[in-house]
Amino acid sequence: MTFSIVGRCERTGAFGVAISSSSPAVASRCAYVKAGVGAVATQNVTDPRLGPALLAQLANGGSATAAMTVVSAAAEYPEFRQLTAVAADGSTAVFSGANSLGINGDSTGKNCVAAGNMLATLDVLSAMVTAFEADPTQAIEHRLIAALEAGLALGGEAGPVHSAGILAADTADWPSTNLRIDWSDNPIAELRALWDLWAPQKDAYITRALNPSDAPSYGVPGDDR
């Protein structure tokens, strides 16, 4: 039903989640990030309450493993949940309940962890980690989407995927990138195209929020600054 990766950029401290699924609008309920704290995915039979709960535990300064232990122990119907997390120190954690669907599992790398269920093959997950780790000089969003692309190339989900999304946070108090393809026959390719459009504008939107007087013009009709 879903494959995802959470990651941290060791160079910039940014966090992000990339996720794809046969279900509609997967990123709207499964991806969570907070600048300076971490990134979380909650999937399989999703309980959206678990994402904020994990971030709250990570904000206390503990490891990803400690946060995961607390949240998974308190979760309702934990046997249906699959959770991943990466913390500010780069530590990662995974929880997969006994009722995770189909071929399911996880793969951990440096500052990242991929997980999935109803997969074509478990090789999907190791390919995602390899792709994320390939070029640490790239923006975290590029690396996360590359991970989705690599997973898809090895079969991705057992059936076709229809939604994909990426959520990332760096220095701002809000997600600096929040891009979603909520229903499509080719959502990961469309997500890549949307990122290519967003990337050169991302910093300008942060400037507009923090210091509008220094912000670049919008470059649209009617903007005569």
Can you tell me about this structure?
The structure is a single chain. The chain is an alpha+beta fold and 225 residues long. The chain has one domain (2-214): Aminohydrolase, N-terminal nucleophile (Ntn) domain (Glutamine Phosphoribosylpyrophosphate, subunit 1, domain 1). The chain has seven helices and ten strands. It has helices at residues 27-30, 50-59, 64-74, 123-133, 140-153, 187-198, 202-210; strands at 2-8, 15-21, 31-34, 38-44, 81-87, 92-96, 105-109, 112-117, 163-169, 177-181.
Oligomer: single chain
Shape: globular
Average pLDDT works out at 96
Number of domains: 1
Beta-strand percentage range: 25-35%
Low-confidence stretches: none
Radius of gyration: 17 Å
Strand order of the largest sheet: 7-8-1-2-9-10
Going by CATH, the architecture would be 4-Layer Sandwich
CATH superfamily: Aminohydrolase, N-terminal nucleophile (Ntn) domain
- The first-to-last residue Cα distance is 48 Å
Structural classification: alpha+beta
The top-level CATH class is Alpha Beta
The major beta sheet can be summarized as:
6 strands, antiparallel
Number of strands: 10
CATH topology: Glutamine Phosphoribosylpyrophosphate, subunit 1, domain 1
